Amino acid sequence: MNLLLLVLMLLAGAGLVTSFLAHLAALFVGLPLVLEPFRENIMSTLTMGVFVVWFPAVLIARRATRSERMNLSWRQVLAGCPPWMRGAAYGLLAYALLNFVLQLAGGSPAGGFSEARLASGHWMLFYGAAFCIFYSVMHKPDLQEPSQCPAGHEVGRDDAFCAQCGLPLNTGRQR
Ligand SMILES: [Zn+2]
Known about the structure:
mainly alpha
């Protein structure tokens, strides 16, 4: 088991739970009053945390898709996740969009907790997606295995020819 992956997954999980709690606090009146003195700290910590887990998550997702392009195949990246987890990730995406639209349509007063509500909706999505990516490659390590030339030599993902035997590589292949 890859310890770094485990640590990243736990960080993403902690971020997901914390941003979920922050989202509940922002949605319901009463809780925010208790958290108000800590709001700036909570928000800046969660924002930084998103970058900490999201950069490695994107790198891993790109390796899993075997592509340097930006069009990731999420079906492939999340192949190591159980179906309910993939469903939950898509649910978070739908909810983040809904939260965003409702926020625009609702015309709630700017700043303060409406800002926290909007931000925490997006944090949940990023932490949740990162968690699923780490979980996926931990349970399906071959997603991270290096590419091979037709003769079985290890090659870089962007190479046009194998450095050892010179065979051409069909770059851009899915698998
Ligand atoms: Zn070769």
